[in-house]
């Protein structure tokens, strides 16, 4: 077994999540990281994309989850991404999804709110 981590880092989307009405109406920027741990031995030895995760397809899956629905919590967004990746790629032993909301409405200066969800399908 040759475990490796395949990552998408800082995928950026415009979506409508949050607990405040303005967040749903106006929308905002969301940043997503996805780290997928899996055995890459066959993919590496055979130089075969079909034996690993296709991160272009993972990006499309993430975009669909982030922009296709509205949620109150970024926890839900991260959870749904992790579940979708696990369902699409059963060979993934663990997936970690981080969702960031830059400049969250917290009543003062704050760079970002973020949540990381780890899921072992």
From TrEMBL:
One of its GO terms (molecular function) is dihydroneopterin aldolase activity. GO terms for cellular component: cytoplasm. It holds the Pfam family FolB. Residues 6-119 form the Dihydroneopterin aldolase/epimerase domain. Keywords: Folate biosynthesis, Lyase. It catalyses: 7,8-dihydroneopterin = 6-hydroxymethyl-7,8-dihydropterin + glycolaldehyde. Its EC number is 4.1.2.25. GO terms for biological process: folic acid biosynthetic process; tetrahydrofolate biosynthetic process. Pathway: Cofactor biosynthesis; tetrahydrofolate biosynthesis; 2-amino-4-hydroxy-6-hydroxymethyl-7,8-dihydropteridine diphosphate from 7,8-dihydroneopterin triphosphate: step 3/4. Belongs to the DHNA family. Catalyzes the conversion of 7,8-dihydroneopterin to 6-hydroxymethyl-7,8-dihydropterin. This is 7,8-dihydroneopterin aldolase. It comes from Rubrivirga marina. The lineage of its organism: Bacteria, Pseudomonadati, Rhodothermota, Rhodothermia, Rhodothermales.
């Amino acid at each position: 077994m040759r475990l490796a981590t395949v990552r998408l880092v800082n995928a950026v989307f415009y979506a409508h999540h949050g607990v405040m009405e303005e967040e749903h109406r106006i929308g905002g920027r969301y940043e997503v990281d996805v780290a997928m741990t899996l055995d890459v031995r066959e993919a590496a030895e055979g130089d075969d994309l079909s034996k690993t995760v296709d991160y272009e397809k993972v990006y499309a899956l993430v975009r669909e989850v982030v922009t296709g629905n509205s949620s109150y919590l970024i926890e839900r967004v991260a959870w749904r991404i992790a579940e979708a990746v696990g369902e699409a790629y059963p060979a993934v032993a663990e997936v970690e999804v981080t969702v960031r909301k830059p400049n969250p409405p917290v009543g003062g200066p704050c760079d970002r709110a973020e949540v990381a969800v780890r899921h072992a399908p």
